Amino acid sequence: MNSKVILTSYSILLCSAGILMLFLGDEIVSYLHLPQSDILNILLGGLLFGFGLVNWHSKNLTVGGIYGRPLLIGNLGHCLIGSISFIKLTFSNPTPLILSIAFVYSVFAILFTYLMYSHPKPNNN
């Protein structure tokens, strides 16, 4: 799979999640029956949006193997930690939203692992 497709789709997902957490963080947290914290909602929204922007601006780079390794490791770490955390959360709060978030994080963890261990294909800009 082309790294441009993976980075573009993941950046759109992260930017969307960041905007939702910035503007609807309290509603999302109360829907999931999690503890409220305005500061954490703002920080999480800002971090997700910023990480999405990094991926968006890196989508035209050659990524895979040794190329773009810091970007891949950052994304893989984020996806692995997110998928493990949301899978753990499904045991205490099994809602369809949490299950779907865990699934999406797991899929992207697999995709970034694939990119890390595959030979890069040049992106056709």
| Total of DSSP H or I helical runs spanning 4+ residues | 4
What's the N-to-C terminus distance? 16 Å
Listing every helix as H and every strand as E from the N terminus to the C terminus, the arrangement reads HHHH
| C-alpha-based Rg, rounded | 15 Å
Shape: globular
Fraction of residues in β-strands: under 5%
Q: What kind of sheet is the major sheet?
A: none
Helix proportion = over 70%
Contiguous low-pLDDT stretches (5 residues minimum) are none
Give the tally of β-strands.
0
User: Taking all residues together, what is the mean pLDDT?
Assistant: 88
What structural category arises from helix and sheet content?
mainly alpha
Task: Explain how this protein is built.
With 125 residues, the protein is an all-alpha fold. It is built from four helices and no strands. It has helices at residues 3-31, 38-57, 69-92, 96-116. The chain is globular and about 45 Å long. It starts with a helix and ends in a 9-residue tail after the last helix.
